UniProtKB/TrEMBL annotation:
Annotated GO MF terms: peroxiredoxin activity
Domain Carboxymuconolactone decarboxylase-like residue range list: 18-99
NCBIfam families in the record: ahpD_dom (TIGR00778)
One Pfam family per UniProt: CMD
PANTHER family recorded: 4-CARBOXYMUCONOLACTONE DECARBOXYLASE FAMILY PROTEIN (AFU_ORTHOLOGUE AFUA_6G11590), CYTOPLASMIC PROTEIN
Protein name: Alkylhydroperoxidase AhpD family core domain
């Protein structure tokens, strides 16, 4: 069953609550510190795909292209686990962790997923990857709740 978007306009949340936007930007900046920018964009895009956040997908795919993420990686990102040889070990671990955080169920993040990520990232890097996945999920949920549209180009 296809869900249709409401025709009624929703809250312009960042205008109504600018401190929310400011706080999210502080969190985003902190989460991105010391994370490879290309890896960061892959994390943001994958979570945004899963959360169906058109605004974030539009923004982060454009940002990824600007910093040189390959079209092949962008094309295969939704099937990264099946794309042998396209994503390196760090990318695969970060994407698995991002998916686990995004789909956080009753079991939480499995030990296997966590241990795979811990094996390729330092403690600092692992903390940053976790923070980045959590942050983009927050952005996705805010934008999905108010249906922030991608800009018209």
């Amino acid at each position: 069953m296809t869900q249709t978007l409401a025709t009624r306009s929703r809250l312009k949340i960042y205008k109504a609550s600018p401190e929310l936007y400011d706080a999210m930007m502080v969190l985003s900046t902190a989460a991105a510190k010391d994370v490879d920018p290309a890896l960061g964009e892959l994390i943001k895009i994958r979570a945004s795909q899963m959360n169906r956040c058109a605004f974030c997908l539009d923004m982060h795919t454009r940002d990824a292209r600007k910093i040189g993420v390959s079209e092949q990686k962008l094309d295969l990102l939704s099937a990264w686990a099946e794309a042998a040889g396209v994503f390196d070990d760090a990318e695969r671990a970060a994407l698995a962790l991002t998916e686990a955080i995004t789909e956080l169920g009753h079991a939480g993040v499995s030990d296997d997923v966590y241990e795979d990520a811990a094996a390729v990232f330092s403690d600092r890097e692992l903390g940053q990857v976790i923070a980045m996945a959590v942050t983009i999920n927050a952005w996705n949920r805010i934008n999905a709740a108010v249906r922030t549209p991608p800009p018209r180009r």
